[in-house]
């Protein structure tokens, strides 16, 4: 019983500690803290920046992803774009719904941190089609 209570408290603390950021369109992102080279960073993964280029959007200019309300989970990476190993036979893997970016922010992210983006080192990863 004590072990179960300890696990429940630890889980609740881990969930509460996840960083949440407010976006300009009103929605929020909830990421997670990880250690990278012994430095704590906040990561926000799989953030959509455009609608998937399928059906009527194929071979067209990207269409911005619509704003959302509430908190969007940004703790897992999005699928890779379709790929095929040219040296191997076999199926193509990936998803056409792959227009997402990942953002890594050093240190603690919380509502009290009000830094300008100009003063904050941020790493982001972006995939796009040419």
Automatic annotation (TrEMBL):
Lipoprotein as UniProt keyword: no
Record keywords, A-Z: Signal
Domain of life: Eukaryota
Pfam families assigned: COesterase (PF00135)
InterPro entries reported for this sequence: AB_hydrolase_fold, CarbesteraseB, Type-B_Carboxylest/Lipase
Signal peptide: 1-17
Residues covered by the Carboxylesterase type B domain: 18-112
Name of the protein this chain belongs to: Carboxylesterase type B domain-containing protein
Organism of origin: Bugula neritina
